[in-house]
Amino acid sequence: MKKSPQQEKLEALLKSSKFSMCGFMGDDKRNLWEVIDTDATAIEKLGKKQEEIAARMQHLTDLAASGLGDWVQVGKNLQVSADDNRGMIPCPWPHHKRCLKRITTARHSATGRTIRWSDLNIHLIKEHGFFEGRGSPFRIEPQELVKIIFCE
Ligand SMILES: [Zn+2]
To answer: Which residues have their alpha-adjacent CB atom under 5 A from ion ligand 1?
Structure first.
């Protein structure tokens, strides 16, 4: 598929360091659409939808925020906490959406595995199906994410 000028522009934008220190694409050699496509396939295999994953992340972030920096127990095996960063970061897509820089950490207590995301990650997954490129500091592996946030 030939890329539109707008897609080209967006890709250049995502590779730049303009919006986040290391760029949303990290050192991923794939293009944006390949990254999104590959993760969409992974999510489908897991039997989840991106909206469902984002909704669960948002729910956990809301619970975590109520802990004011302390761990909040969710169900039997999950603990979540959120920092109180009130700074804002813009979505790189051209639609003037800004999200909190707040970071939520989820910990699976049985295995000790943790995963973290920012409010922007939630938006990127929900609206754009984008988990960021490999090597990006906020790259989220869909398999790992689903395993942790949907654990009972
Ligand atoms: Zn956006």
So the answer is: 91, 93, 97, 127
- Report how far ligand 1's centroid is from the alpha carbon of 51 (Å): 14
CA torsion sign for 26, 111, 70, 52 is: positive
Residue 19 tokens, joined? 């919006």
Beta strands in the chain (DSSP E): 72-74, 78-82, 88-90, 98-100, 103-108, 114-118
CA–CA distance, 21 with 135 (Å, rounded to integer):
12
Residue 59: which residues within 8 A CB-CB, separation 6 or more? none
Segment 60-88, tens digit of pLDDT:
999 999 998 899 999 999 999 999 888 99
Instruction: Domain ranges for the chain, please list them.
Output: 5-149
Kindly report the pTM of this predicted structure: 0.88
**Taking residues 110-124, what's their average pLDDT?**
95
